[in-house]
Amino acid sequence: MKEQLNPRNVSRNIFSSSGFSLIELLIVVCVIMIIAAIAIPNFIRSKEAANESSAASNMRNISTAEFLYSSTYGAGYSPNLPSLSGNTGTPAPTHAELIDQVLASGTKSGYVISYTPGTPDAQGRIISYAINANPLVPGSTGQRFFYSDQTCVIRWNNTAPAGPTDIPIQ
After folding, report:
1. Is-contact 159 146, C-beta < 8 A?
2. pTM, whole model, 2 decimals?
3. How many CB atoms lie within 10 A of CB 161?
4. In a structure prediction context, what are the per-residue pLDDT tens digits for the chain, which is 170 residues long?
5. What's the structural domain count of the chain?
6. Which of 6, 47, 93, 114 has the smallest number of Cβ neighbours within 10 A?
7. Residue 14 included in any domain
8. Would 2 be classed as within a structural domain?
């Protein structure tokens, strides 16, 4: 004799064999959250390290541009960062085209770069300068503060804007 299928049993079998149970889904979500909890802080630290490396490189680029500006135009160092940039095709003391315009704007890669020219000598030439690169959001876009001047030595500080007496980068 043939066994008759009860519609109630058939529907139960279909639902129990398809899809995932709530417990299985919760386990998958927990595993994903654990992986994210490990990965996100590492990503943030690597982003900060990249911003700091970029800031130190930008400081080196500005110092090199200042040396070239001084030797090319014989007018000492530049009066401001925009004088080092430009894209007119014909370099001049007001737009030397030595650095890019983003760097000359003062904010790049999560750092605010400030340029302070020194006092001019008797001939009106600027004989010193100071550059500071500070994180836009300390602890988020970068940890370290940087400083450089006409000596081209890049210095850093962990807690406050760096100055001429701070530790040089090795």
Report:
1. no
2. 0.78
3. 13
4. 555 656 555 555 555 556 788 999 999 999 999 999 998 888 889 999 999 999 999 999 999 999 999 999 988 999 999 999 988 888 999 999 999 999 999 999 999 999 999 999 999 999 999 999 999 999 899 999 999 999 999 999 999 999 999 999 97
5. 1
6. 6
7. no
8. no
